[in-house]
Amino acid sequence: MTPPSQTVKQKVTQILEILEWTGLLIITLATLVAVGLEIQTMYLAHNVLLQDILMLFIFLEILTMVGLYFSSGKLPLRYPIYIAIVAIARYITIGMKQMDGWTIISLSLAILILALTVLVLRYGQVKFPYTEE
User: Fold this and answer.
1) 65 shares its domain with 106
2) How does pLDDT run across 116-125, given as a tens digit for each residue?
């Protein structure tokens, strides 16, 4: 089997980049729609709850993550972890009254593990920086 020509590789790369940017635009638009719906829900309820604010933080982290990817072409692993931490905190906040003690402890441990993961990742970035050669 012969390797593809350089022009075929370039075309495939261009198509993948277009698909990637299209996906990022769809994620951005969907997040903005979700923010609008969340604000509308708070407005109609004439009430802002902690879970609403945490949901807005999740949306903000998603937009930050997409913005970083647009600007640098890289996605730091920390941002999805931040989103997971806030999502678990929101889940605990919403359902705490219906949860038993072990569930709350388990979810809290999950947050702790994710936070420690962020610390390890940051330590690795500082101590062993990645350089492209």
Assistant:
1) no
2) 999 999 999 8
| 97, 55 contact by CB (below 8 A) | no
What are the DSSP calls for the chain, one per residue?
A: -PPPPHHHHHHHHHHHHHHHHHHHHHHHHHHHHHHHHHHHHHHHHT---HHHHHHHHHHHHHHHHHHHHHHHS---THHHHHHHHHHHHHHHHHHGGGS-HHHHHHHHHHHHHHHHHHHHHHHHHHHS-----
**Residues 64-106: tens digit of each pLDDT:** 999 998 888 888 888 899 999 999 999 998 888 899 999 999 9
| Same-domain pairing of 43 and 94 | no
- 90 shares a domain with 66: no
Residue ranges making up the domain that contains 41 = 1-73
